[in-house]
Specification:
mainly alpha, 4 helices, 2 strands, about 30% helix, about 5% strand
Length: about 130
């Protein structure tokens, strides 16, 4: 997890999680949306990020997400020390684009496991029965 300098995972989660080596502090400016926009546009060879779903009308709502994308980009760029040409885009995903199912609905639909908790739901591999 990437965090701005001075912000600990413990403080962010009210002590629910501890920083057991899975978080990294990064300079605060890595999380700035303007910096992120500039770096991502340079990476993708674009003038703006409109083609990726970040427009002037939703830019403010996506400010934190853009900052997080920029921090991640900077971290990967700093640690890999190589051209990252295979990273050629990003996608904005909204919860309004999906159907959210609570745990009870998922359980009753048996999507991932049957009613006894066995992985035999709709997404589990089906067994073929052969009869002689």
């Amino acid at each position: 997890m990437l965090l701005p300098e001075g912000l600990s995972i413990e403080a962010l989660t009210d002590g629910l999680f501890r920083a057991d080596g899975f978080s990294r502090e990064r300079p605060v400016w890595h999380f700035a949306s303007e910096t992120a926009s500039e770096q991502l546009c340079a990476q993708f060879g674009t003038r703006d990020l409109a083609g990726f779903g970040i427009h002037a009308d939703n830019r403010q709502a996506l400010d934190a997400a853009l900052g997080a994308a920029g921090a991640l980009w900077q971290y990967v760029n700093d640690t890999q020390k190589t051209k990252l040409g295979h990273i050629d885009g990003l996608a904005v995903e909204q919860t309004s684009d999906a159907l959210l199912l609570d745990v009870h609905t998922r359980r009753h639909l048996e999507l991932f496991e049957d009613s006894q908790g066995r992985p035999d739901g709709a997404t589990a591999p089906r067994r073929r029965s052969t009869s002689n």
